[in-house]
Write a structure and sequence with these properties.
Strand order of the largest sheet: 5-6-7-4-8
Structural class: alpha+beta
Number of strands: 9
Order of helices and strands: HEEHEEHEEEHEEH
């Protein structure tokens, strides 16, 4: 008789843009359980120079997303992050960090303010499950709702001096005040 061993199969996740990356000839690798592009046929130097001199567009859909909303959302955000989120106007975001009580880093984060009591965190892909658990554990004493929305969004990052020009073609919002 043959015996069966327990085999754990790791599922490689794909972003909504995966087929586009493959169609464009991207070299794909396993990035922390995600099938992600690391290089396109033009090569890394050409990609680097495009971002430095014009524009580059990156699929960052693997990043984690957390929404914190409710009556004490601001207090909860202030409790778990390092910068003063009260200074954010609605529609603004800031680069910050989530901190352990002794002041060391849990992880870095981009905090968006969607409304008076509505915040959205973009966290690192590789630590998103740990970070989401930490956020939930450290906001329990606040009257707020913490939602794990990582699989609900596709995200792109647009970088480079011509980024605003490219993005302006897709929106009626005035992006002229966006700083490079």
């Amino acid at each position: 008789m043959s015996s069966l061993s327990n085999v754990t199969q790791t599922l490689i996740r794909k972003t909504a843009l995966n087929a586009v990356h493959r169609k464009l000839g991207a070299k794909m690798v396993d990035f922390n359980g995600w099938d992600m592009p690391v290089e396109y046929p033009a090569g890394l130097i050409a990609e680097h120079m495009a971002v430095r001199n014009a524009v580059g567009i990156f699929d960052v859909s693997h990043m984690g997303d957390i929404r914190i909303s409710g009556r004490e959302a601001l207090a909860a955000v202030q409790h778990i992050s390092m910068n003063d989120a009260s200074k954010l106007a609605i529609g603004q975001c800031q680069y910050s960090a989530m901190l352990y009580s002794q002041g060391t880093f849990v992880d870095d984060v981009i905090i968006h303010r969607f409304g008076e009591d509505d915040f959205f965190f973009v966290i690192n892909a590789g630590t998103r499950e740990k970070d989401i658990t930490w956020v939930r554990d450290n906001t329990r004493s606040f009257d707020c709702r913490v939602e794990h929305l990582s699989d609900d969004f596709t995200q792109i990052a647009i970088q480079g001096p011509r980024g605003v020009d490219v993005l302006q073609k897709l929106t009626d919002a005035d992006l002229s005040k966006v700083k490079f």
